[in-house]
């Protein structure tokens, strides 16, 4: 069983990463086609969709996964199947209701998003149309997500992994094809192209849903066989069943919404604050597109990779807490925190130092992108380490059965973001939004650290000492990259074109990564934190010393 579970987790992880990579790389050609104003329009629509999807699903898919796994474990397959069928109906109704609400609210949301102004840039009609186009996806996605949860509850990760990849692939192909056809082939409006780009969420969901239905048909004999061998059905009313389900669902829906909710604050406050500061509406929109759409896609690359590495330790943390082995639990928490710093810190420092060539490599540099892109990326990059720690600390709090504290942590941070966003934008303009996000996450993380220390008796001393050491390595890496950039500036400039920016970026990344990894290896951090994969390097060194 352990081997099967490990294999399933690996398959799901690979599928998730392929899906995420596809979800990142489409942004670069998309921004080249529609520009920053089109990116802002896309963000307006997708921001609403993300929130309404979370409301519609209410954390049900992951909760159903946990529910099914629990009752399968005790051999009550009747209750598992009953929950699955009931959940499909609930998700179908919830998704359709969410679609209707968002579709009809679109004309009222649009003016709020645009700061109450309709001159120049995107219009109220444009935003309304895009929100309505993306709202259609709410009909299919909740049902698809619940089927994935059912498969995962049955320890069958393949269907979820394959459907994720197919969904994202279909979505990206449709998105880029439709955008290219509208912009380049039929000389259509940018707003029309963005509308079809958001509608791609529905098309992708249909692709993923078809894959899952095929798997359900193929696995039906197996599930029916389990049903025949089932123990007598647990005596649970539908009310009791959903009461238990909702107890699982709450934390999933809130913590998973962290970054979308922060973006949602910007959706409703950013343009108005920027316009009141003195910016033209069209300029405010383009900067909004930079900060909420283009730049986060680059920043989230190190976040998604590193947090996944840290989160692989969370099941063992849960197990240690459940068994009451607090010394082991504290060591695992320590290792998780240190791995996050080890992997994310050099990535964000490198991205901040190489912000100019990194932005110029992936995005067009005409207009405001060239003027502000590197600047905002340099400031946004360090926020990635806050994203990582928020995700991991929330998972640890859930692992030690303190889900409510994870929700409180999120709410505190969101309130900070909400209260400081407009004032900081008035003072620092577009940078104020990034600073408000950083402040909100910092307060959330500080609260989570406090709660983890309180409930596990965890000491931060070793983590802080090693963090100082890794910060020193990152500083030396940054100084090396800056020196190389300075030397290269006599020969080439990243502002001269894509080839030059790619060259500078690659040289900087290779030298920076090489220096950081060498220092981490020589200090034995790699072996201590990443285990046996690097232990052989230290053994060779010891053998030479003996000889």
TrEMBL record:
Keywords recorded for this protein, A-Z: Cell membrane, Membrane, Transmembrane, Transmembrane helix
Residues passing through the membrane, by range: 49-68, 88-109, 129-147, 168-186, 192-216, 245-265, 298-318, 339-360, 372-398, 405-428, 434-452, 472-493, 499-519
Major subcellular site: membrane
Cross-referenced InterPro entries: PG_synth_SpoVB, Poly_Biosynth_Transport, Polysacc_synth
Cross-referenced CDD domains: MATE_SpoVB_like
A UniProt-annotated Pfam family: Polysacc_synt
Subcellular localization: Cell membrane
Membrane disposition: Multi-pass membrane protein
PANTHER family per the UniProt record, alphabetical: LIPID II FLIPPASE MURJ, PST FAMILY PREDICTED COLANIC ACID TRANSPORTER
Name of the protein: Polysaccharide biosynthesis protein
């Amino acid at each position: 069983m352990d081997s099967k579970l490990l294999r399933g987790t690996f398959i799901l992880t690979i599928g998730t990463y392929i899906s995420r990579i596809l979800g990142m790389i489409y942004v670069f050609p998309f921004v080249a086609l529609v520009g920053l104003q089109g990116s802002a329009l896309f963000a307006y629509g997708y921001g609403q969709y993300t929130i309404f999807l979370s409301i519609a699903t209410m954390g049900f898919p992951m909760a159903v996964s946990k529910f099914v796994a629990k009752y399968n474990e005790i051999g009550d397959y009747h209750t598992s199947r009953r929950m699955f069928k009931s959940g499909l109906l609930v998700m179908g109704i919830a998704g359709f209701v969410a679609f209707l609400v968002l579709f009809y609210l679109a004309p009222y949301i649009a003016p709020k998003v645009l700061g109450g102004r309709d001159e120049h840039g995107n219009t109220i009609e444009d935003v309304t149309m895009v929100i309505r186009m993306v709202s259609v996806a709410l009909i299919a996605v909740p049902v698809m997500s619940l089927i994935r949860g059912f498969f995962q509850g049955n320890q069958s990760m393949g269907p979820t992994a394959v459907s994720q990849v197919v969904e994202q692939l279909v979505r990206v192909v449709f998105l880029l094809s439709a955008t290219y056809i509208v912009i380049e082939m039929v000389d259509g409006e940018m707003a029309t192209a963005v509308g079809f780009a958001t509608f791609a969420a529905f098309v992708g969901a249909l692709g993923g849903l078809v894959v899952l239905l095929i798997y359900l048909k193929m696995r039906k004999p197996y599930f029916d066989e389990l049903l025949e061998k089932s123990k007598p059905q647990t005596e649970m009313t539908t009310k009791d069943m959903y009461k238990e389900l909702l107890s699982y669902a709450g934390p999933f829906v809130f913590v998973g919404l962290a970054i979308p909710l922060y973006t949602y604050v910007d959706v409703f406050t950013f343009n108005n604050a920027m316009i009141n500061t003195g910016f033209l509406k069209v300029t405010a929109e383009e900067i909004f597109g930079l900060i909420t759409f283009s730049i986060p896609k680059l920043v989230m690359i190190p976040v998604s990779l590193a947090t996944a590495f840290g989160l692989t330790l969370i099941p063992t943390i849960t197990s240690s807490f459940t068994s009451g082995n607090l010394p082991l639990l504290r060591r695992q928490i320590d290792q998780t925190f240190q791995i996050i710093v080890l992997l994310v810190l050099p990535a964000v420092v490198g991205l901040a130092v190489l912000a100019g060539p990194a932005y110029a490599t992936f995005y067009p540099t005409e207009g405001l992108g060239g003027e502000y892109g590197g600047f905002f990326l340099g400031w946004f990059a360090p926020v990635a380490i806050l994203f990582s720690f928020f995700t991991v600390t929330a998972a640890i709090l859930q692992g030690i059965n303190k889900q409510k504290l994870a929700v409180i942590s999120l709410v505190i941070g969101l309130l900070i973001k909400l209260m400081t966003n407009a004032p900081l934008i008035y003072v620092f303009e577009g940078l104020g939004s990034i600073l408000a996000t950083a402040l909100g996450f910092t307060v959330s993380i500080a609260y989570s650290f406090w709660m983890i220390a309180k409930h596990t008796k965890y000491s931060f001393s070793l983590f802080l000492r090693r963090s100082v050491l890794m910060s020193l390595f990152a500083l030396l890496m940054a100084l090396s990259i800056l020196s190389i950039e300075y030397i290269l500036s006599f020969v080439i400039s990243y502002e001269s074109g894509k080839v030059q920016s790619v060259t500078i970026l690659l040289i900087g990344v290779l030298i920076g990564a090489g220096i950081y990894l060498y220092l981490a290896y020589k200090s034995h951090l790699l072996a201590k934190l990443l285990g046996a994969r690097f232990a052989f390097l230290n053994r060779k060194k010891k053998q030479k010393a003996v000889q």
